[in-house]
Amino acid sequence: MTKITKIFQARGSGRISAILTTTILFVTLASVAASLSLSRAFSKPAEATSEAALLDGYRHVEAASVSDAIEKASGQRMYMSHRMRSIFPSKFAGIAITVQLKKEENQDPNALQGMLAAIDQGGPNSVYVMAIENGSDIAGMGGLMGTAMAARNFSGAVIDGGVRDVAYLQKIGFPVFSLGFVPSTSVHHYRFAGANIPVVCDGVTVGAGDIVVADGDGVVVVPRAKAADVLAVAQEMDFKEHSMYGYIEKLKSIEEAVKKFGRL
Questions:
Q1: DSSP 49-67
Q2: Is the distance from CB of 140 to CB of 185 less than 8 angstroms?
């Protein structure tokens, strides 16, 4: 082997070594970056910058955490009572369309037209929130209205009153929270009193555009102006609580878990 050949081989080996070193460094940095990104995704609250992001965030937190977050942020009670129950296990979050019915005996065929128009004005992500004056034994909606809401891709309905045609609503899988099941009708007994106005639904004031979160624990209303801040707190609470389950099982102590995470 000549001296010149040895020089070229040495230089080639050096280049290969440099290329390998650079490649390894690049792969390592990429792996670290991906790891950090994944860690952020699972350990930090999502930044809600749009309605879609807000709703996606609220669909992944528990109603109980949302309720706690509102109380922590503002001292308000924004959850509905134990009477407000779902017709089948369900979870949803959406934007409130509000409807008010007032008690009034009548023979007017158009007395309730406004409550139907409100449905046809809604769409994907809408939640139909109906307040019925003294309506715990009056069905505010049934299969026909539920079918229309489902066809328009509403997220669900919350009725401060009763619901009927429950078997059919269960069949089509449309989620409704109400005060109970009743076979009665609002026709000729009630009159439409307004849509997309503030209403009091099972003791909670709901405005058009507010976010309604519902799951097996009940229904919570988030004022739209506070939605992003409340979501961030709720996500943090959810993360802590879910982290505590394994910690409690490991230590067999809820006191130690509460001391560590500061969540109960």
A1: -SHHHHHHHHTTS-HHHHH
A2: no
* Three-class secondary structure of residue 170 per DSSP: helix
Q: Enter the DSSP assignment of 79.
A: B
Going by C-alpha positions, the residue among 189, 89, 174, 105 that lies closest to residue 139 is 189
Give the predicted TM-score (pTM) of the model: 0.79
Confidence label for 20 from pLDDT (cuts 50, 70 and 90): very low
Dihedral, CA atoms, 122, 127, 133, 135, nearest 10 degrees?
Answer: 120
What are the φ/ψ torsions at residue 260 (nearest 5 degrees)? -75, -45
Q: Which residues of 167-182 are buried (b: 16+ CB within 10 A; e: fewer)?
A: eebeeeebbbbbbbeb
CA-CA-CA-CA torsion sign (25, 28, 30, 36):
negative
Residue 261 has pLDDT above 60, yes or no: yes
> How much is the pLDDT for 28?
42
Rounded average pLDDT over 237-254:
78
